[in-house]
């Protein structure tokens, strides 16, 4: 059969763009919601394929049906595993092969998703503990948006601390709205209770220009702000998601406190994952 005669071929929202076939072996899902936060950040939601299962914190490969061979990029699923839709929180990179197009999606458009999810920011990669620290910068908050909406997180931990550091205050909006929405939601607030804490800082603007998370950990300011003791490998677990530099520096601090890096094969006391390449 001629690939272009594929009955699954799609057009853009206006129905005007040339139709490209849906590649074999991928899901083609429909965008249900788009929200822009800044000129560099947006989130979108889309339908969830029937039978698609994942663990909260995992990532998938997504693309657009805008070429014969679409560009796919890794994206953390920001919604929890119980959600009937899938949510993503995205950067807009100027001239970025995927995001220069992805940032223009509208409700009703099609997004492609490869069928397998994977990742290390999952409960299975951590040993049991008392407190869970989720350290993120920028879009690194995405996998934690999933974890903090998962009841398993609160079954496993007494206290959950989400930190997000961005350059500007405007970039913190997604995380702040998310935590406010959890607290306002009858069902989620029942299992979250008062266990969830958000520590959000902007490093390059705001009345009280904040410090990097690494500086806040090293100085002990983070623990003072939270009213919690310093990191202890007996009780504390951590997940880290940000740029390569942020991962390197934050992981080094975890090791200094005696935490050990874990994986799906060998659970331990902290885990890391890149939020982007570069
Ligand atoms: C495991 C994993 C999970 C990821 N999850 C997400 C996610 O949930 N949300 C998301 O927006 N991106 C995520 N990314 C990055 C994503 O895969 C793409 O790089 C991003 O969508 C840009 O794609 P692009 O083709 O437009 O540009 P690319 O060619 O991929 O990137 C161009 C440059 O833009 C910068 N950049 C790329 N992504 C980011 C980012 N997220 N934040 C800041 N700078 C960036 C880097 O300097 C990069 O070299 C993830 C990457 C990995 C490895
Ligand atoms: N976001 C923007 O407004 C912007 C503007 C122009 C270009 N870019 C480019 O886009 C890419 C990503 O930008 P981004 O702002 O999403 O991510 P980013 O540069 O990684 O910065 C996000 C936050 O992480 C902090 N950070 C950076 N390195 C760290 C480390 N090693 N340890 C701990 N904290 C660290 C930053 O603090 P500091 O402020 O102290 O660095 C900032 O608060 C970069 O290539 C950047 O050059 C972004």
Q: What does the average pLDDT come to?
A: 93
- Given the structure, what is the number of helices? 8
General shape: globular
Q: In total, how many beta strands?
A: 11
Top-tier CATH class of the largest domain: Alpha Beta
Bound molecules: flavin-adenine dinucleotide, NADP nicotinamide-adenine-dinucleotide phosphate
* Proportion of helical residues: 10-25%
- Structural class given helices, strands, pairing? alpha/beta
Cα Rg: 19 Å
- Low-pLDDT sequence parts: 1-8
Protein name: ferredoxin--NADP(+) reductase
Family: Belongs to the ferredoxin--NADP reductase type 1 family.
Catalytic activity: 2 reduced [2Fe-2S]-[ferredoxin] + NADP(+) + H(+) = 2 oxidized [2Fe-2S]-[ferredoxin] + NADPH
Keywords: FAD, Flavoprotein, NADP, Nucleotide-binding, Oxidoreductase
List keywords for this structure.
278 residues, alpha/beta, Elongation Factor Tu (Ef-tu), domain 3, Rossmann fold, 2 domains, 6-stranded antiparallel sheet, 5-stranded parallel sheet, 11 strands, disordered N terminus, binds flavin-adenine dinucleotide, binds NADP nicotinamide-adenine-dinucleotide phosphate, ferredoxin-NADP+ reductase activity, EC 1.18.1.2, FNR_type-1, nucleotide-binding, ferredoxin--NADP(+) reductase
Provide the fold topology.
Elements: E1 26-36, E2 41-47, E3 59-63, E4 73-76, E5 85-91, H1 99-102, E6 110-114, E7 131-137, H2 142-147, H3 151-156, E8 159-166, H4 173-184, H5 186-192, E9 196-202, H6 213-219, H7 221-226, E10 236-242, H8 244-256, E11 270-274
Helix pairs in contact: 6-8
Bound molecules: flavin-adenine dinucleotide and NADP nicotinamide-adenine-dinucleotide phosphate.
């Amino acid at each position: 059969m001629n690939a272009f005669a594929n009955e699954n071929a799609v057009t853009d929202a206006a129905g005007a763009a040339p139709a490209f076939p849906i590649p074999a072996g991928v899901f083609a899902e429909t965008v249900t919601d788009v929200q822009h936060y800044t000129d560099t950040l947006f989130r979108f939601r889309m339908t969830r394929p029937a039978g698609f299962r994942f663990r909260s914190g995992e990532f998938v490969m997504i693309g657009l049906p805008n070429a014969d061979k679409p560009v796919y990029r890794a994206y953390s699923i920001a919604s929890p595993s119980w959600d009937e839709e899938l949510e993503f929180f995205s950067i807009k990179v100027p001239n970025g092969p995927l995001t220069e197009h992805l940032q223009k999606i509208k409700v009703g458009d099609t997004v492609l998703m490869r069928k397998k999810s994977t990742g290390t920011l999952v409960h299975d990669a951590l040993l049991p503990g008392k407190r869970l620290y989720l350290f993120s910068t920028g879009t690194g908050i995405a996998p934690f948006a999933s974890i903090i909406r998962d009841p398993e997180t609160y079954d496993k931990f007494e206290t959950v601390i989400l930190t997000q550091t961005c350059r500007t205050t405007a970039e913190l909006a997604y995380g702040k709205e998310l935590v406010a929405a959890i607290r306002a939601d009858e069902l989620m607030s029942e299992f979250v209770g008062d266990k969830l804490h958000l520590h959000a800082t902007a490093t390059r603007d705001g009345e009280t220009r904040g410090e990097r998370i690494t500086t806040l950990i090293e100085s002990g300011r983070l623990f003072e702000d939270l009213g919690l003791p310093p990191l202890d490998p007996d009780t504390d677990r951590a997940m880290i998601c940000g740029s390569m530099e942020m991962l390197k520096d934050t992981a080094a601090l975890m090791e200094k406190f005696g935490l050990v890096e874990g994986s799906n094969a060998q659970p331990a006391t902290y885990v890391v994952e890149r939020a982007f390449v570069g």
